[in-house]
Task: inverse folding
């Protein structure tokens, strides 16, 4: 009996470690390979909060968000935007209601963000660093 309890405790501890590791995956900002604009935390924050429609060099920026249920979105919201996903939703609800803003386009996952950014030189999005491929340019923003 004690061996069975020990086995269950070990299994729970192992699963906890695995989920903790995935929760700390690095989120990177991605742009089209032809985009030469500098990307920093301040400019990304302004673009994704609708305070600017341009990159620092003045070129158009089209932000692409992931679904609110995405763990990558939750990491981006907290690490880059400095707010929880529910705070971001409330922020956009207020702007929509008052007619002062339109939230970024929302897609399901990393692969959908990569596809849109690879096809549009003005697009900017974010993905887990493990998902990045040669069709986009990535930048770690902290």
Result:
């Amino acid at each position: 009996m004690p061996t069975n309890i020990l086995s269950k405790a070990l299994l729970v501890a192992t699963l906890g470690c695995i989920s903790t590791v995935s929760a700390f995956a690095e989120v990177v900002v991605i742009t089209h390979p032809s985009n030469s604009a500098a990307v920093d935390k301040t400019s990304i924050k302004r673009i994704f909060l609708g305070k600017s429609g341009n990159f620092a060099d003045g070129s158009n920026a089209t932000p692409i968000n992931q679904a609110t249920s995405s763990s990558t979105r939750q990491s981006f919201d907290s690490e880059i935007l400095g707010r929880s996903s529910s705070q971001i939703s409330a922020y956009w609800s207020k702007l929509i209601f008052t007619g002062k803003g339109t939230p970024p386009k929302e897609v399901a996952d990393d692969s959908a963000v990569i596809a849109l950014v690879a096809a549009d030189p003005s697009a900017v999005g974010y993905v887990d660093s493990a998902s990045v491929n040669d069709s986009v340019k990535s930048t770690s923003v902290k």
The two ends are 49 Å apart (CA to CA). The chain has five helices and five strands. Strands lie at 27-31, 62-66, 105-107, 123-128, 137-139.
